[in-house]
Every structure is written in structure tokens, then in C-alpha cells.
Amino acid sequence: MNRRDVLRAGAAAGIAGLAGCVVPGGDDDDAAFAESFEDGLGDWEADAAIGPEVDLAEFEWEVGVSDAQAAAGDQSLRVWNEGSYDDGVTWAVHPVSVESGRAYEVGVAGQFWSESESFNTIRDAVMRLGPEPPAAEADFPKPGVNTSALGETPYGGLREPLWLADGWHEYDFEWTTPELSTDTLYLAVGTAVIWEADATHYVDDLSVSVEAR
User: Model confidence over 106-143: pLDDT tens digits?
Assistant: First the structure.
């Protein structure tokens, strides 16, 4: 069993209860999702990808809930990955409920923790919301891209440098959706390797706002 299988089995078997909540509300069928990892991983699933020149089984990574750092409450999502290959993405993904047959204006925000400020880009923060969960690094935005300024796109997200500050730093994006043919979107958050060094980051205080347009 590889690292991905172990983490998925642990998430499914080890934690009862819902990590996040999806709250319908308003006359415009607005929906909201909020997560601070106080109840563990819950419905979050961990995954990773790396370029074709490296077997994924050789890429070391970990995703779990930790009380070492927290932006809200007492726990956060811990994301660790190695930098040996100067490549690779590690993330966790969670479903978000919406009403199909409608288009939306979506806002997503979250807090990412870095050990210190650095002039070197050691990792990028990655966030993605779309009709399908990511399966490869190419499913996330390219470096420096944030969908807030792009208008209607197939999915929303960002890939922006971490280590911009000592401690917590907020990342956010907006997404103008096409008319959706699904009632479930998938929120993914994690880190992409840039520098050849192992690194730990934490993610917390996630929120998704959804307004019909």
C-alpha cells in the first residue's frame, strides 16, 4: 500500500463526524462552506502528483490534521512534502454542494502558514475549485495565475508563492462559473514544490461563498 492509500484509509476509518459544513441559505440559493479542521480530516481526501520522470511512489509527502499551528481554533491541515525532485504537488480535496443548472460568482479564501519570510520561492500555495477533483499538477493553475481577473473559466483557483510572511498569510481567489451541470464542486488546497528542500506548511480557516448570477 503506498502513502496515498494509507492516508485515504486512515481518513475513512479513523475519524467520525464531519470536518466541514455546507450551509444553504438566502433567497438566491447562496451556499457557504467553512473549514477549520477542528474535527479532523472528515470528508477530506489527500492526494499528490509529480512529473512523469519520477514514479509517484518515490515522492514522499504527508497530509494530516495537526495542533502545532492554527489560524482559527486549535487545529489546522498539515501539508509536508520533500523537495528532492524539485517537483511535485500535494493537496487535500473536499466536496462542496451547489445547485446544478445555474452559474455562480464564487469567492474562496484560506490561511496558509510558512515558517518564515524568504526571498526564495520554496513552495507555491495551490487552491482549486471545480466540477472535478484534481488528478495531476496540470489541473491546478500555472504559477502566478489567479482566476479572479480572468472572467468565466472552467474552474477557479490560484498558484502563488508561499514564504511571503512569517506565520499566517491569506490567499484568495474569485471564480465566475459557467452554467454548472453538477451539484458538487471540489475544493482542493495544498502546496507545489519549487525549491529542492523539504517543507511543512499549514492550511486553515477556509471559506467558500457562492452567489447565483
Answer: 999 999 999 999 989 999 999 999 999 999 999 999 99
DSSP-based three-state secondary structure for 48: strand
Q: Take residue 69 and report the three cell numbers written for it.
A: 499551528
Query: C-alpha grid cell for residue 6?
Result: 494509507
For the entire predicted model, the pTM comes to: 0.86
* Radius of gyration for the chain, computed over Cα atoms and rounded to the nearest angstrom: 16
Question: DSSP assignment of 117-158, as one string?
Answer: --SS--EEEEEEEESS---SGGGSPPTT-BGGGS-B-SSEEE
Q: Give the list of residues 6+ apart from residue 99 with CB closer than 8 angstroms, or none.
A: 29, 31, 183, 212
| Residues β-bridged to residue 179 | none
Q: Are strands 61-66 and 156-161 parallel, antiparallel or unpaired?
A: unpaired
Give exposure, 75-111, as e/b (b: 16+ Cβ within 10 Å).
Answer: bbbbbbbbbebebbbbbbbbbbebeeeeebebbbebb
Reported as a single tens digit per residue, the pLDDT across 49-102 is: 999 999 999 999 999 999 999 999 999 999 999 999 999 999 999 999 999 999
